[in-house]
Amino acid sequence: MQVGSLLQQLDPSHLAAPHRSLPRAVRCWSEEPLTNQLQVPVLKSRDTEAKEKGGLLCDLVSEQDNHQLNSRSPVHVWGDFFDCMESERSQRMGNACIPLKRIAYFLCLLSALLLTEGKKPAKPKCPAVCTCTKDNALCENARAIPRTVPPDVISLLFTSNSFDVISDDAFIGLPHLEYLFIENNNIKSISRHTFRGLKSLIHLSLANNNLQTLPKDIFKGLDSLTNVDLRGNSFNCDCKLKWLVEWLGHTNATVEDIYCEGPPEYKKRKINSLSSKDFDCIITEFAKSQDLPYQSLSIDTFSYMNDEYVVIAQPFTGKCIFLEWDHVEKTFRNYDNITGTSTVVCKPIVIETQLYVIVAQLFGGSHIYKRDSFANKFIKIQDIEILKIRKPNDIETFKIENNWYFVVADSSKAGFTTIYKWNGNGFYSHQSLHAWYRDTDVEYLEIARPPQALRMPHLILSSSSQRPVIYQWNKATQLFINQTDIPNMEDVYAVKHFSVKGEVYICLTRFIGDSKVMKWGGSSFQDIQRMPSRGSMVFQPLQINNYQYAILGSDYSFTQVYNWDAEKARFVKFQELNVQAPRSFTHVSINKRNFLFASSFKGNTQIYKHVIVDLSA
């Protein structure tokens, strides 16, 4: 019990507090002489009083009557007073009991406290599996780290023991330990906080064990450490050991040379000579985040009034569904919708500060809507000529020389793929391309042709009836002219492009056969990689931060996600997604979060979160 809590019991409000018996060696003296003028209380024996009240009993002997009182007079401590209980001998002598001053109580109580708390616990004995001297301990054949090692040891050695795991705080209570040797055992695992509290440790040896890795920050807090021996272990030099390589680069401690036992590419390499650049420990994945309970075809994202939105075309309900990000619930929620018939594409385009949406429909014609900020709704402002656009399948928007355009790929037998231009009040027909060819997709991109160094606008039209056709922008006429096609690529459903280090690539989708990745070589596209297609209608490249992906959808199998390998300059298989009849994949970035929207013609629209994982953490 602490001094402060004992002194609190001196207050009268603590009269009912339980009492303690003082050691019998304590003698409490009062400077007040005993007198016969006060009423003598009822006397009880010392043992009886102690049993009844459980109080503190101490001895009181008066200097004045010391020659008369040779036996002890019990005193019971209670609140601010001493109840003096005379023995039978004292009663016969006529001595009276008087109240004692508070100072006597203080002196008695504090004397007992000092004697009680002054006792030190006995030092731990040497464990049975150890041999101990004043400063050293040697432990052999132990099944676990003993907890009763003498606290004053400076050197501690474990050898030929049977335990293979060392847990947290295994050496707690050894503040003076300077040398710790855990050698020639079969240690397989050590916890991160095994050596916590060993601030005086100078030398640590884990030599000749069976360690394959060490937990990060295991040496944290060992401020006095000057020598570490890790030889004779089977270290696997993977991402879990990357931290050790970094620690070796900046520690002031001397560390003996250690070597990798795995993986094969690092076998027998000196760990001390590795650098953090030798480890590729950052991986990514697409983790399921949210399901939207409806089918969809196209999905697009756009920025408007400093917010990010997503618009989804629903073919069976005929709606364009607009989603916004819920900053509280951390999910996407409905914002607004445009109702139509058999909607296949909802393409947003923001001109200056005004939002327009081009809604392509299989039946009932296609239309252009404007967002009315005052009425807070979408208003139809224009119809798209039905004689040219009979069966729209794709829409692409682009800007050339400060002029806005959009192009609609028409897949009907009698339709025209048509370019529309913004004139300040609406969109009007600017140019018709590729009549009667049943175009399924259109892609806008910029590529350079020698001897020109600048990239020029181009369009690539995919068709079910011929090879993809490349159109180039003519600056003089302000029109696209037919340049060439992509050879040996019949039955291409769609073409999408991406760039890596300034080089332009395209992904070509085939429903059955091989989809391809091709690279622009200055005058034509060159074949660099093929992926098997099993009912594929989308092969979408997309970039998230510094990661370049290509996602090949499939109606008959899992969707394959590929990741670009910069060293190989090609895609490598990365992940599989289970999406029913996917038709588009769209990257959406909101609040430093990256999402992948996967449309589905037969199932729910799915949202995946792009997750970055550090394997060395």
UniProtKB/TrEMBL annotation:
SUPFAM superfamilies: L domain-like. Keywords: Cytoplasm, Glycoprotein, Leucine-rich repeat, Repeat, Secreted, Signal, Synapse. It holds the Pfam family LRR_8. Residues 233-282 form the LRRCT domain. EAR repeats lie at residues 285-327, 331-373, 377-424, 426-475, 479-522, 524-566, 570-612. It is found in: Cytoplasm; Secreted; Synapse. Gene3D superfamilies: Ribonuclease Inhibitor. Coiled coil: none annotated. GO terms for cellular component: cytoplasm; extracellular space; synapse. This is Leucine-rich glioma-inactivated protein 1. It comes from Phyllostomus discolor (pale spear-nosed bat).
